[in-house]
Amino acid sequence: MRSSKFLIATVKETPADAEVISHQLMLRAGMIRKVAAGVYNWLPMGLRTLKKVEKVVREEMDRTGSQEVLLPAVQPAELWQQSGRWEMYGGELLRLQDRHDRDFCFGPTHEEVITTLIGNEIRSYKQLPASFYQIQTKFRDERRPRFGVMRAREFLMKDAYSFHRDQESLQESYDQMFTAYSTVFTRLGLHFRPVEADTGSIGGSGSHEFHVLAQSGEDAIATCDKHDYAANVELAVAAQIGGERAAPSEQLSKQDTPGQKTIAAICDYLKAPVEKTIKTLLVKGAEVDAVALVLRGDHELNELKAEKHPLVAAPLQWLDEDEVMQAVGCGVGSIGTVNIPIPVIADRSAANISDFICGANEDDVHYTGVNWGRDCPEPESFDLRSVKQGDLCSRAGDVDLGEQGDEDRLKIMRGIEVGHIFQLGTKYSEPLNANYLDQNGKATTMIMGTYGIGISRIVAAAIEQNYDDRGIIWPTNMAPFELVITPIGYHKSELIKRTCDRLYAAFSDLGIEVLLDDRNERPGIMFADADLIGIPHRLVVGEKSLANGKLEYKERSADEAKEFDAEDVVDLLAARITAAR
Ligand code: ATP
Ligand code: MG
Fold it and tell me: What is the pTM for the complete model shown?
């Protein structure tokens, strides 16, 4: 490609409304332009990279034996009513009506459509297992579209669905997809991590997310290399702290605490360590008006964990001030476990402390020296809290005896979710009647898996890991061009022009994706653009070095330029570029 014939839409200034580096650089490098909130144009430069990601994903999906399909973007409401998601999906579902007032949605995902299709097309156990994928535009009316194409409303996804006779066959496909995903992200040159993920109402252990590690990531991931543990903080298991619970040593005592409502204020006022306090949080029960969730003062509630307890209403709903008053007769800052008239669920760490401090269910009063089993009933103990940096890894042995070392402790990292694989079971095949006839001719429900990759999100995520103050540094397999030829004086020197044109033809013939910057621009501008766009290899053709039979070569990721003999530059560079693919 010649720059004079290609839309180089680079921008010097950093766009004011772009918060993260990938969004800034994608705008500045002329890859994307905003059309509306979370809706983008892909310019030729951006599309080249997007297509590269698509290509790697397609190759690896094909390799698993998954078959490519193309399903409609617009889907009839009936399918979503049948699965129950027309009501459940909420505000993210973009609903539309046709001229006959019939309801449709723009697909945010395709379980309903594919399950109906395959339920109709596959009839016999002999046709299973089977797997299908597509690469297609999705729309989700995200509450907070941001970070450019990273959390967009319209975006490109690869979604795959597998259909099985039994759990064993599903597990096989799932493992195969796990490997394929790892290959995709490795080939794309990304620093990533598969982590255990939440399975929501389906339960079980059949879900992994793939995260690109980057500071700007919206997810928190807990990892421990020693015990080979990695999980989204949404579900990471908290290890029990403190060994066996100590026997009570203090008397129960009521203390006036005028105006002291927060944990920090109480610790300060009573000169007590935070580990000796508990907080009591009231939420709606599944069958009763209120349930108390108890955590140690220094721990945070994990709402997803709490929702999984059968006594707790899902999704989690906090009681408001009035409801709290009605349930326990005091304000939010004064609740405690002594004589509380509602069911109590205590986090495992909170259930394990003795002589603790809590509210007295009357304003401006607290209890000290409280003990489970003596001053209030033994609570039901449950993993309720979010893990934090430095917590013991739950695989290091469930009890922290103070013997474990740093390598037994969790690290919290930030991640960008670029892929998600999930064992669905019969969640969709049952309501949508996807049945097959088994060996005995009996109609049986198919078992399913679903597998997503955020194709457009990957482009942004890769930049979050690969940039410097001059611009993007593409991993080889994602670069819009592999090589840029930058002439000094293309429009002034016949020799330069001839040399560049010859090199351009030679590299192109060898299948190298080369951009010849034949614009009539100053060298400084051409260098700055090549760096901003992030082309991995650059060849400079100038009169001075050419007079010595040399050409200047620089790798985008290197600090220093090198000189190559003009004679063998094509062979040398072509070999180097193709080897890195
Ligand atoms: P998130 O937690 O980021 O909202 P999700 O769990 O809703 O993701 P899935 O439904 O599993 O995502 O979709 C599959 C993949 O699609 C995700 O792993 C992600 O890479 C991509 N994706 C999801 N939402 C968006 C979005 N708003 N913009 C860009 N890519 C997205
Ligand atoms: Mg989402």
Answer: 0.92
